Amino acid sequence: MDLFLQQVINGLVLGSMYALIALGYTMVYGIVNLINFAHGEVLMVGALTSWTVVTLLADSGLPGPALLLAGLLVAMVVCGALNFTIEKIAYRPLRNAPRLAPLITAMGMSLLLQTLAMIVWKPEYKSFPILLPDEPFEIGDAVINPTQVLILVLTALALVTLSWLVNRTSLGRAMRATAENPRVAALMGVRPDTVISATFVIGAVLAALAGVMWAANYGSVQHSMGFLPGLKAFTAAVFGGIGNLAGAVVGGLLLGLIESLGAGYIGQLTGGVLGSHYQDIFAFVVLILVLTLRPQGLLGERVADRA
Asked: What pLDDT is attached to residue 2?
């Protein structure tokens, strides 16, 4: 097996899921200048919701892809409603408060969602059923399975759809106007509250998509599963330039590649002292380097203006 090619494929798949989550971070930050640290928990709720739907429909006779689609659609609706509610009751009242207040609220919301999920779904890991064919495709000396192919395709479709929405629709123009100056946008007939709510809902839909595909790819779900992917996706958003849609995708893919290649070669590079289980350190090394050397990220400009 070609280790390098295999790690590149693994990195692109992992990076695609980071990119889906990072898009939610960067959209919310771009509109209301808030880092929503509860975003990873929205992913978790999406994954657990889809697991519940798939489990309930397991004896219905529906084929695996239909079960996955049903779980995904319900997860998107639940996560959209959840993020809409969170924005309305937790963040909107603090919109004009000092920056620290909504940041602390976001952390509190993250812990609250984890606790509620633990109560509802219990703390044990749950096996997510295999719903797609698991026969891998060969690419040279590497392999990729249908679930991973679907992740790559869905990420590309999500980015194209989001770019069209932001650049070609009236909602997208309202989002850009609100991001520039909500007061002036309101004078021009835009309703900033509606636009901000829509942004949170769109971010939640992407998080639900990422959560379901994460569960399908790794085969398990649990109440704390959103914390680490959420933190790494935040790193990806900062890496690419938080507030920039293309930057979120570039940052996600690069972070996935760095993490995967690092995990594949860290043993050789350190003479066996460190193993692949140290792969999580790469995300945080990247975060420290970016914040130190280029805090606006690879493609970010607006962060520097806002800081």
From this structure: 76
Distance from C-alpha of 242 to C-alpha of 261, rounded to nearest angstrom: 24
pLDDT at 305: 44
State residue 95's pLDDT score: 85
* pLDDT at 303 (0 to 100): 45
Q: Which residues pair with 137 in a beta bridge?
A: 144
Distance CA 233, CA 251 (A): 9
Q: Which of 72, 20, 80 is nearest to 49 (CA)?
A: 72
- CA 65 – CA 216 distance, rounded (Å): 11
Q: What angle do CA 43, 294, 180 make, to 5 degrees?
A: 65
Give how far the C-alpha of residue 123 lies from the chain's centroid of Cα atoms, to the nearest Å.
22
What pLDDT was estimated at residue 1? 59
* Bridging pattern class, strands 137-139 and 220-221: unpaired
User: Phi and psi for 126 in degrees, rounded to 5?
Assistant: -120, 140
Residue 139's beta-bridge partner residues?
A: 142
pLDDT < 70 regions, the chain: 1, 272-273, 275-276, 300-307
Residue 243 pLDDT: 80
Assess contact for 77 and 248: CB atoms under 8 A.
Answer: no
Q: Is 8 helix (H, G, I), strand (E, B) or coil?
A: helix
**DSSP string covering 217-286:** HH-EE-TTTTHHHHHHHHHHHHHH-TT-HHHHHHHHHHHHHHHHHHHHHHHHHTTTSS-GGGTHHHHHHH
Picking from 216, 245, 302, the residue whose alpha carbon sits closest to that of residue 27 is 245
- For 255, residues 6+ apart whose C-beta sits below 8 A from its C-beta are 15, 18, 232, 235, 236, 239, 282, 283, 286
pLDDT value, residue 301: 58
Q: What letter represents residue 9's amino acid?
A: I
Alpha helices (H) along 122-244 = 146-168, 170-180, 182-187, 192-218, 227-240
- Both structure tokens of 296: 């606006």
DSSP string over 68-103: HHHHHHHHHHHHHHHHHHHIIIIIGGGTTS-THHHH
